[in-house]
Specification:
Layout: E1 2-5, H1 10-38, H2 40-48, H3 80-108, H4 111-134, H5 140-154, H6 157-168, H7 174-181, H8 184-199, H9 206-225, E2 229-230, E3 261-264, H10 272-276, H11 281-310, H12 314-342, H13 345-366, H14 371-401, H15 413-438, H16 443-460, H17 462-472
Parallel strand pairs: 1-2
Antiparallel strand pairs: 1-3
Helix pairs in contact: 1-4, 1-6, 1-8, 1-9, 2-8, 2-11, 2-12, 3-5, 3-15, 4-5, 4-6, 4-9, 6-15, 7-12, 7-14, 8-9, 8-12, 11-12, 11-14, 11-15, 11-16, 12-13, 12-14, 13-14, 13-16, 14-15, 15-16
Length: 481
C-alpha cells in the first residue's frame, strides 16, 4: 500500500488539507455511485407488474390476457412479489457472503485498483440487467444471475472507501465528519430514484443502463485520481490508523525538509478471528444486522408500498420515496454530532432505534392520510432508521478498527468494517425476503416485522449502553467500544 508523506511545514500542512478534502470528495462520489446503481430495481418493480386496467391499451396490440397485458413476464404472475423477492435476495445474499471476504482482499490489494475494478464490473452487470429490456429477455434466471454478480462486485466498495477515509482523517470529530460523508448513501439512493424515474415509464431498461454508465465512469475516475493514504503526523490531522507509539515516523520528522514522498506500509493484516475479538465488534455487528434489515426493506419495497397504498404512479412513488433518504441524511449527521458530544455511540444508536419503533407504527396507520403527513413521516422515519445504520457503518467501524487492543495495526480497519457491514448485509438480505413473503398477508404485518427488528437491534446494544452509562456516572473510565 502506498502513502503520501507530508513534511511538517505550513505549506505542506495546507497541501495536506487540500488532499484530504479532495479524497473525502472523491470517496463520497464513489460510494454515491455504488448506491445509485442499486436503487433502480426498487423503482422498476412497479413497472414490471402494473394494474393493467388503468393503462390505455394500444389499438393494434393483439392480446389474450386483459389483466396482465402490460406486465413484463415473468413478473406478470400472481406470485410476482415472491419473484421480486428472489431478485432482491440474489443481490443481497451474494453481497452478504462476499462482504466477509471483501475486507480481506481490500487489505491485501491496492485500494485504487480494487475500487476501480469493482466499479467497472458493477457498471457492466447493472447495464446488462437493463439490456434485458432491449433484448426482450423474460427469463428470471437471467435477471437473478445479473443480481448475483452485481452483489459480489459491489462488495468492493464499502471496506475500501472506509479504509481510505480512515487513512486520511483524524479522530477528533470522527462522528460528525463521517456522518456528513456517509450521506453518500442517501444521496445515491435519491439520485438513483430520480434517474430511474425518468425512464421507468417509457423504457425501463435505461433505468439500469444510465446508472451503469455512471458507476463505470467513476471507476475510471478512481483509477486516475485516488490517493489511498498519507503519512502525516500532526494532532487532529493525524490519520485514523497512525496511532501506535512504535510506528515508524522517520519519514515525517519535524525537521524533515524533503519534498512529499512515497512510503510503504509493512504492517501485517489482522485475521478474521482477531477482528471478532475486538470488544464491541460482535454487539455492533448484530445490532447492524437488524438495523440494516429495516433500512433495506425500505430501500427495496418503499416505492411499491407507496404505489399500492397511496395509489401513486411508478415515477411519483419513486420520487416520494426519496424523502426517506433525505431524512436519512439529516439522521446520519445528527447521530454523528450527538455521539461526538456525548461519547456514547451505542446509546445514540439505541435511543434512535427505540424512537423509530413507534414512528414506524404511526407511519403505517396515518402516513398516507394526506400529502403533508406522508412527507413529514417519511422524513422522520428516514432519519431515525438510517441514523444508527450510518453511525455504525462509519464512525463506530472506524472506532473499532483503531481500537487500543490492536496496538496500532494500521491494516485492521478494512476487515473490521467488512465484518460489521457483512453481518449487517445478512439483515439486508433477510428484510426484503421477509417483506416479499409477508406482504401478501397485508402491509401491517410487514411493519410489525420491522418494529420487532428495531427492538432486537436495541437489545444487542444493551451491554454497551450500560457501560456508557456507567462511564457518565463516573463509575468506570470513559471509553468507546
Amino acid at each position: 500500500q502506498l502513502h503520501i508523506s507530508f513534511p511538517n511545514t505550513s505549506f505542506c500542512q495546507s497541501l495536506f488539507c487540500r488532499y484530504r478534502s479532495f479524497i473525502l470528495f472523491l470517496t463520497f462520489i464513489f460510494y454515491t455511485a455504488y448506491h445509485l446503481s442499486r436503487k433502480p430495481i426498487s423503482i422498476v418493480k412497479s413497472e414490471l407488474h402494473r394494474n393493467c386496467s388503468t393503462v390505455i391499451r394500444p389499438v393494434d396490440l393483439n392480446i389474450t390476457n386483459n389483466a396482465t397485458w402490460c406486465d413484463w413476464a415473468p413478473f406478470d404472475q400472481d406470485n410476482y412479489q415472491t419473484l421480486f423477492g428472489v431478485l432482491d435476495n440474489s443481490f443481497l445474499v451474494a453481497y452478504a457472503i462476499g462482504m466477509f471476504f471483501s475486507g480481506i482482499f481490500g487489505e491485501r490489494l491496492p485500494l485504487r485498483y480494487y475500487l476501480s475494478a469493482g466499479m467497472l464490473m458493477s457498471g457492466l452487470f447493472t447495464a446488462l440487467f437493463g439490456l434485458g429490456f432491449y433484448w426482450n429477455i423474460h427469463s428470471l434466471g437471467y435477471y437473478a444471475f445479473m443480481q448475483v454478480m452485481n452483489g459480489l462486485v459491489q462488495t468492493t466498495g464499502w471496506p475500501a472507501v472506509v479504509a481510505c477515509v480512515g487513512n486520511w482523517f483524524g479522530k477528533g470529530k470522527r462522528g460528525f465528519i463521517m456522518g456528513v460523508w456517509n450521506s453518500h448513501t442517501s444521496v445515491g439512493n435519491i439520485l438513483g430514484s430520480l434517474i430511474a424515474g425518468v425512464f421507468v415509464s417509457s423504457a425501463w431498461g435505461m433505468s439500469f443502463i444510465v446508472p451503469g454508465i455512471i458507476i463505470a465512469s467513476t471507476g475510471i475516475l478512481c483509477f486516475f485520481f485516488l490517493v489511498e493514504s498519507n503519512d502525516q503526523e500532526s494532532g487532529e490531522a493525524e490519520p485514523l490508523l497512525q496511532n501506535a507509539p512504535h510506528t515508524d515516523r522517520t519519514v515525517n520528522s519535524a525537521i524533515s525538509t524533503d519534498p512529499p514522498g512515497v512510503v510503504e506500509d509493512h504492517t501485517e493484516a489482522i485475521s478474521f478471528c482477531g477482528a471478532l475479538s475486538i470488544p464491541g465488534v460482535v454487539e455492533f455487528s448484530l445490532c447492524l444486522l437488524f438495523a440494516k434489515l429495516v433500512s433495506y426493506t425500505f430501500l427495496y419495497w418503499l416505492p411499491l408500498y407507496i404505489s399500492n397504498v397511496a395509489h401513486f404512479e411508478a415515477k411519483e412513488a419513486g420520487d416520494m420515496s426519496t424523502l426517506f433518504d433525505v431524512g436519512g441524511i439529516v439522521g446520519g449527521i445528527m447521530a454523528g454530532l450527538v455521539s461526538d458530544y456525548t461519547g456514547g455511540r451505542a446509546t445514540t444508536c439505541c435511543v434512535m432505534l427505540i424512537v423509530a419503533a413507534p414512528m414506524l407504527f404511526l407511519y403505517n396507520y396515518i402516513g398516507q392520510r394526506s400529502l403533508g403527513t406522508t412527507i413529514g413521516m417519511l422524513l422522520v422515519c428516514g432519519g431515525l432508521v438510517n441514523g444508527p445504520y450510518a453511525l455504525i457503518t462509519t464512525a463506530v467501524s472506524a472506532d473499532l478498527g483503531t481500537h487500543e487492543s490492536l496496538r496500532g495495526n494500521s491494516r485492521a480497519l478494512s476487515t473490521v468494517t467488512a465484518i460489521i457491514d457483512g453481518t449487517g448485509s445478512v439483515g439486508a438480505a433477510l428484510g426484503p425476503l421477509l417483506a416479499g413473503v409477508i406482504s401478501p398477508t397485508g402491509w401491517n404485518n410487514v411493519f410489525y416485522m420491522l418494529i420487532s427488528a428495531d427492538v432486537l437491534a436495541c437489545l444487542f446494544l444493551s451491554r454497551l449502553v450500560y457501560k456508557e452509562a456507567q462511564s457518565w456516572c463516573g463509575r468506570a473510565p470513559r471509553q468507546r467500544g
